Design the sequence.
C-alpha cells in the first residue's frame, strides 16, 4: 500500500460521502439470548486530552490537557493491520479487510471462518496513520457471542493494540465511548474529524431491542495512538 496520509484522508472523506448514513448498519442475522446492557457514554471526545483527565460525564478532570498528546509517538506510514488485541475484554483477533458493498453500505464479516473476526475498513487509514482508522466487529451472531460482545466495558485509559503487516505494533489508548442511534449516526464525527492525529475507532452494534428483534444503535470506542514498538 503506497497511499500517503493526506491522500488517504481525502479517500476517507470521499468514502463517507458515498456510503452515507447507512455505513454503520452492521446488520446481524441473529442475537445472543443474553445481550450486554447498553454502555454508558464516557470520556471526552477531545483526542488531545490525557484519557485519565476525563470524568465519566466527559467533563474535565484534574490532569493537564494535552499532556498525552505531547508525549505520543509520531504517525506511522501505511501498513495493513493483521491482529487486534484488547486485554481488558479478552479480545485477541485476526483482522480481516472489508470495503463497501454494491449497495454502498459498509461490508461486515460474513458467515464462515471470518464471522467472529475484527474487520478493518479499507477506505480508512491503516491504524497508526494520521486520521481515524475504522475497525468493526459483531457483538453477537446467530451462533452466539462475537468478537466485540464486551466492547462496552472499555473505559478511558484502557489499551488497544494493533499488530501491522510491516512488523510494527501500534498501541492506542481509549479516551471516549459513545452510543448513537443508527438512524442518526454521526458519520462525519466518526469517520472524519481530525485527519492529522492517528486515532482508532472500534465499532459494533448496541441497544438490542427485543420488540423489533435487532440492535437500534451503534457503539463507538474512540482511541488514539500512544505507543509504537518494532516487531
Sequence:
Amino acid at each position: 500500500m503506497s497511499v500517503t496520509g493526506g491522500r488517504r484522508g481525502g479517500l476517507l472523506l470521499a468514502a463517507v460521502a458515498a456510503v452515507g448514513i447507512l455505513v454503520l448498519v452492521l446488520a446481524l442475522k441473529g442475537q445472543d439470548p443474553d445481550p450486554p446492557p447498553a454502555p454508558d457514554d464516557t470520556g471526552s471526545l477531545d483526542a488531545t486530552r490525557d484519557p485519565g483527565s476525563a470524568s465519566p460525564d466527559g467533563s474535565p478532570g484534574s490532569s493537564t490537557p494535552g499532556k498525552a498528546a505531547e508525549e505520543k509517538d509520531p504517525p506511522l506510514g501505511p501498513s495493513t493491520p493483521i491482529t487486534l488485541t484488547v486485554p481488558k475484554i479478552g479480545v485477541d483477533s485476526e483482522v480481516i479487510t472489508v470495503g463497501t458493498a454494491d449497495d454502498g453500505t459498509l461490508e461486515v464479516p460474513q458467515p464462515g471462518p471470518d464471522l467472529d473476526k475484527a474487520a478493518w475498513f479499507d477506505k480508512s487509514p491503516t491504524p497508526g496513520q494520521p486520521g481515524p482508522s475504522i475497525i468493526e466487529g459483531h457483538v453477537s451472531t446467530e451462533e452466539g457471542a462475537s468478537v466485540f460482545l464486551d466492547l462496552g466495558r472499555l473505559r478511558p485509559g484502557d489499551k488497544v493494540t494493533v499488530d501491522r503487516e510491516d512488523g510494527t505494533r501500534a498501541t492506542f489508548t481509549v479516551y471516549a465511548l459513545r452510543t448513537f442511534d443508527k438512524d442518526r449516526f454521526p458519520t462525519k464525527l466518526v469517520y472524519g474529524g481530525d485527519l492529522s492525529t492517528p486515532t482508532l475507532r472500534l465499532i459494533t452494534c448496541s441497544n438490542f431491542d427485543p420488540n423489533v428483534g435487532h440492535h437500534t444503535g451503534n457503539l463507538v470506542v474512540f482511541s488514539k495512538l500512544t505507543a509504537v514498538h518494532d516487531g
